[in-house]
Write a structure and sequence with these properties.
Elements lengths: L1 H20 L6 E4 L13 E8 L5 H18 L4 H4 L3 E7 L18 E3 L2 E3 L4 H4 L4 E8 L13 E4 L4 E3 L12 E5 L8 E4 L1
Parallel strand pairs: 2-3
Antiparallel strand pairs: 1-2, 3-6, 4-5, 6-7, 7-8, 8-9, 9-10
């Protein structure tokens, strides 16, 4: 009799531990305090965030994007984007050594030249490129380019996929762009659909 009670208590404890460990972790967003002058996009106004437990499925990423658009419209006044020439927000996955308490290393003054930008090789753009989750572009300064997307739009790094909810300026029916390979590769190509 006593042996059966111990088995029941052990089974109940295991069930409680199992169900407690299966709770879905909540996605949280933390603003990064970094020196924006050291980044590759010196001419752009931007914000950088760390995301704990970001969604991994495609539908979850699109819902995350919609929530961030809503949050942006609630936090910023209507005149905010009229003052900016180019504005985007970058979101990075939280990792063990790259978390909500991230502090930038001291500047590396051995700068790299990349297409007319000077940037620090230890900036978050360069050193944590593989941790990048998504970018949301709210405003761009490509007014004369008729083939440009209408902001806001989304870039999903892991999938190498752009999502243009409002389409392109010259074609509002094109909502997606996928790049295969890396620019400069022989097999690099871009597909719009």
């Amino acid at each position: 009799m006593e042996n059966i009670n111990i088995k029941k208590i052990g089974f109940i404890i295991l069930m409680v531990l199992f169900f407690c460990s299966c709770n879905e972790k909540k996605t949280e967003i933390f603003k990064m305090n970094i020196d924006l002058s050291r980044l590759a996009h010196e001419r752009a106004e931007s914000q950088y965030f760390i995301v704990s437990n970001p969604p991994s499925d495609f539908a979850g990423i699109l819902l995350f994007y919609q929530r961030e658009l809503t949050r942006f419209s609630l936090e910023k006044n209507k005149d905010f984007l009229t003052k900016e020439e180019f504005y985007f927000q970058s979101y990075y996955r939280e990792r063990f050594f790259f978390d909500r308490n991230y502090k930038e290393p001291k500047p590396n003054y051995g700068k790299i030249i990349s297409s007319d930008f000077f940037f620090d090789t230890r900036s978050v753009d360069v050193s944590h490129y593989d941790d990048k989750f998504i970018d949301i572009y709210f405003k761009e300064n490509n007014l004369e380019d008729k083939d440009a997307p209408v902001p806001p739009y989304l870039y999903i790094h892991k999938m190498n996929l752009y999502y243009y909810p409002k389409g392109l300026k010259n074609n509002p029916d094109t909502h997606w762009k996928m790049s295969i390979g890396r620019p400069g590769d022989i097999n690099y190509k871009t597909i719009r659909f």
